[in-house]
Amino acid sequence: MLLHVENLSVSYGAIEALHDVSLQIEAGEIVTLIGSNGAGKTTLLRMISGLLPAMGGEVSFAGTPIAHLPPHQIVRLGLSHAPEGRQIFANLTVRENLMIGAYQRTDKVEIARNLDRCFALFPILAERRGQRSGTLSGGEQQMLAIARALMQQPKLLLLDEPSLGLAPLVVRKIFEIIRQINASEGVTIFLVEQNAHLALNLAHRAYVLQTGRIIMSGVAKELAEDEEVKRAYLGG
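The structure corresponding to this sequence follows.
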């Protein structure tokens, strides 16, 4: 098992954002987490990647407990996070942003190979490599955020709302690249996504988070046919 979360609880002051959340992700999977705004999806990703402390529960990655590790140590273990809102460095070039993704690495030859692989996955970034990232379109910035996370050679990639604010055509393109990253690059993916229809079509398995609690889980295509899921998240 690559990621194991057990009875995880996270609070903001007196407000409990996550309550006894448990889930698991096997190597090679795409697993998605769907839920309404405010359900706690981003909080869960931030906790897994060490950006928020847990009040209770356990998180292990590739057999190593990580709930109390700082983010840079978690990244070093092979877990990368492309956050909600992209959070690129607008004043730096595309190439500089990508190199920041490899900041903990010293293997220059392999870093250069990874850079070439990112440019192959995202040809528009190769064309824009010397351009300031703040001048990119929203879709290009999202591609950059994903590529930057890949520069650390992750075993597990956390993706938080990659479709947010993007045109449907761009979203479909990015989702196809996510599929390719999993199938061709062998990267396991944990996807938080507002577009439940696309997420469930892409993923192998899925969890449904509601007001900080996991209320459903299963094979993604089966959940997509569930009447409760259709009513709540698919407009059915």
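The chain has a mean pLDDT of 94.
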